[in-house]
Structures are given as structure tokens and as C-alpha cells.
Amino acid sequence: MERRITVTGTGTVRVRPDTMVVDGTITAVRPTSAEATAESARMLAELSDAVAGAGIDRDAVRASALSVSAEYSKAREDREPELIGYRFRQGVTVQVPLGDSRTGSLLEAMSASPDLRFHVGYSVLDQVVHEDEARRLAVADAVRKARVITEAAGTGLGEIVSIRDGEYESFREPRMVRYGMSSPDVAPEDESFTETVTIEWNLI
């Protein structure tokens, strides 16, 4: 019977965010669904113009799914709910390099729209590079642990039988902060990338 050892290593990389992510929703009520859809397109174009006016490429504005739904008044004891109109919700995202000198102008331009609600977050643009570095650290951690265990047990590591990448998938999202009328003064927290690697060896 072959003797084997299986060890899981963990690697973590902490990185300072390099991208500011502005996520928002344009929303308003119009009498008909057609008017709501048309108004959504108009406001989105208006936002793109405002962003361009702040010196940011208008292509930096990314639109997500548009939703349109009927909106009714609240029910009362003596009155049934009445149709008020149709509310549209248009998601938008703008990404700019963190520390860009145009950030203040961008946020000021977006704040000028009364129908736009948004929050500011921070993220790492090239996450794959840091995930791969965390994997390298995870492999080194697994090898270190395996050597400690086998040396203590008076045996040694043979050939690798198998390698599995990740027993779990870590969850990450941009660090979100509230935005008022001025840019946040506090630097964003580092983002952590954690990966696991499980290695199985024959023992000698």
C-alpha cells in the first residue's frame, strides 16, 4: 500500500487599490413606459456629456440593464392604489485611475444630477496578477508544511501525485464608501487576494 500525504497551503496578497469605481442609478417616473425608456436614454446621454465635460472619456461610462416598472400610489382605506406612472432604473458605472486629478470634477459633475444616486468604491484593476501571486505563495506554504510534517515523522517527500487549485473560491468586491460633496480624504483599505492549493505526495 502506497503511503501518501496531502497538504493544503494558503497564500494571501494585500494590494492597495488602483481604481476608483463610481456605481450609480439614474431613476425617475414618467407617465408611460415609452416615455420612461426615452427619458432614460436622454439622461444617460446627458451624464456622458457631463463626464466628458469633466475631462473623462465618455466611453468610461458603462450602462447596465435598464428596468421599467409601473409605480402606484399607496393604498388607503377609502381609495385603491392608483397608477402614478412608470419608473425607470438605469445602472451606470464609471471607472477612473485612483488619484487621477480629474476625480473631483467627475464627482462634482455627477452630483449635479438630481436623478442620479451613486456611491464610490475602490478596486484593483488587474486582479489576475495578484491571484496568481497568491497561488505561488500557497504552493510554497503547502511545501513548507509538508516538509515540516515529514521531517517530524522521520520520512520524506516523494513525487507529487496531484495538485488541486483552490478548495474554496474567495469572494471580493470593491471597498465601498459614501460620497458627499467632496472627495474622501481617507486612503482606501488594501484589498486581499487569498488562494489555496492542495498538493498530494508519495512518501519515501
Task: Output the keywords.
204 residues; 5-stranded antiparallel β-sheet; Translation Initiation Factor IF3
Structure description:
The protein has 204 residues and is α+β, with helices and mostly antiparallel strands. Helix 1 runs antiparallel to helix 2. The radius of gyration is 26 Å and the shape is elongated. Mean pLDDT is 89; it is low at 170-183. The chain is built from three helices and eight strands. It folds into two domains: 4-16 and 126-203, Protein of unknown function (DUF541), domain 1 (Translation Initiation Factor IF3); 19-123, Alpha-Beta Plaits (2-Layer Sandwich), CATH 3.30.70. The chain has helices at 33-53, 103-111, 127-153; strands at residues 4-15, 19-30, 61-72, 83-97, 116-123, 157-165, 175-177, 191-203.
Q: Oligomer, anyone? A: single chain
The helix tally amounts to: 3
Extract low-pLDDT stretches: 170-183
Number of strands: 8
Strand content: 35-45%
Instruction: Average the pLDDT over all residues and give the rounded result.
Output: 89
CATH superfamily of the largest domain: Protein of unknown function (DUF541), domain 2
Q: How much helical structure, as a percent, in the residues? A: 25-40%
CATH level 1 name of the largest domain: Alpha Beta
Alpha carbon gyration radius:
26 Å
Any idea what the CATH architecture of the largest domain is? 2-Layer Sandwich
**Element-by-element helix/strand order:** EEHEEHEHEEE
